[in-house]
Design goal:
about 15% strand, binds NADP nicotinamide-adenine-dinucleotide phosphate
Length: about 325
């Protein structure tokens, strides 16, 4: 495993991080609690130390699972969770009001069963609440010791400029993968200039970049609506993406790696990326994903992947 310092902080984090959206067991497929605990433990045993969760994942259930899984190994992990999005039935509701943030963090600490959160992130912007009000409350909570460092997720350039003028932000969590690279245009230079870290999410495009799907998967709509969030599974994009999957598979075969490892390795090698978060449902995936940090693809293969990714993204956007 490779380790890196996250932005301007003393957090040493693994280049591959563990995403736990699926541990909510509600919108990313079914997963037994014990299986999720075992997957997290296997990830930590394989060198992954950054665990990302959120109250919105299974209405707190993901945080409960993370809390159980890290019992006795708190000192080995960096815990990142979020505020500002809660669940109302199937809906994800944004709320960055000071009272909601305070309630969110108390609930997160109790579910995770920890004294302090290492990285507390604003999950999504809330256009109905002035950012100053949210930040003022977050500064109070930080002073109270509820969390160590503040990060943001899904912030555009303007909001990043605003918030970094108000307080210290160590990281951004954006979607980033071979299939989603909007980050690179305006945001990345800002992040690099400000010496912030990036925890990228959707590293496997929700699983498609593992190359395991030979036809459009028939996800269980009741419990798995990942294709609403990751549009690559939709008919119009699916066929474009196959050309990229083919290249990933060829490179994987040449280097005796799996396609998932090639996709993850590409992400963690790109400029500015501190950690690529990968959702991991079992021990096998955990070990495989962690090992994606243990090799270096030659520049020629990186370039091939980047060029093909450009082509496919342009096709999807046309
Ligand atoms: N801040 C935000 O707004 C936001 C949004 C989305 C995600 N995130 C965070 O980022 C994390 C990662 O993103 P994600 O989980 O949405 O998507 P992802 O990492 O692109 O895909 C994860 C899924 O891919 C499949 N997979 C993982 N490893 C595999 C392997 N080695 N071989 C084959 N299949 C494999 C698993 O699903 P199957 O086995 O069922 O296919 C897994 O649930 C999330 O868990 C969450 O912590 C944050």
């Amino acid at each position: 495993m490779k380790y890196r310092i996250l932005g301007d902080s003393d957090l040493k984090v693994s280049a591959v991080g563990l995403g736990t959206w699926a541990y909510g067991d509600d919108t990313f497929g079914s997963i037994e609690d014990q299986q999720a605990v075992n997957a997290l433990r296997a990830a930590v045993d394989s060198g992954i130390n950054l665990i990302d969760t959120a109250p919105a994942y299974g209405d707190g259930h993901s945080e409960v699972i993370v809390g159980k899984a890290i019992e006795g190994i708190r000192d080995k992990v960096v815990i990142a969770t979020k505020c500002g999005v809660y669940r109302d039935g199937e809906d994800y509701v944004r709320d960055l009001s000071p009272s909601r943030i305070r309630k969110d963090i108390e609930l997160s600490l109790s579910r995770l069963n920890i004294e302090q959160i290492d990285l507390y992130q604003i999950h999504w912007p809330d256009p109905d609440i002035p950012l100053e009000e949210s930040v003022e409350e977050l500064i109070k909570l930080k002073k109270e010791g509820k969390f160590k460092y503040l990060g943001v997720s899904n912030f555009g350039r303007d909001l990043l400029t605003q918030i970094t003028n108000m307080t210290d932000i160590i990281s951004l969590q954006p979607q980033y993968s071979l299939l989603e690279r909007k980050l690179e245009n305006e945001i990345l230079p800002f992040i690099i200039e400000k010496k912030m870290g990036i925890l990228s999410y959707g590293t496997l495009g929700g699983g498609i970049l593992s190359g395991k799907y030979t036809e459009i998967p028939d996800f269980d709509d009741e419990k798995d609506n990942r294709s609403e969030f990751y549009p690559f599974f939709k008919e119009e994009n699916w066929s474009y993406v196959q050309e990229l999957i083919q290249l990933i598979k060829e490179i994987a075969a040449n280097y005796d790696k799996t396609p998932a490892q090639i996709s993850i390795n590409w992400s963690i090698t790109r400029p500015g990326i501190t950690t690529a978060l990968v959702g991991t449902k079992n021990k096998k995936q955990a070990q495989e994903n962690a090992a994606a940090a243990d090799f270096q693809l030659p520049d020629s293969e990186m370039e091939l992947l980047t060029r093909k990714s450009n082509k496919i993204i342009n096709q999807m956007n046309s």
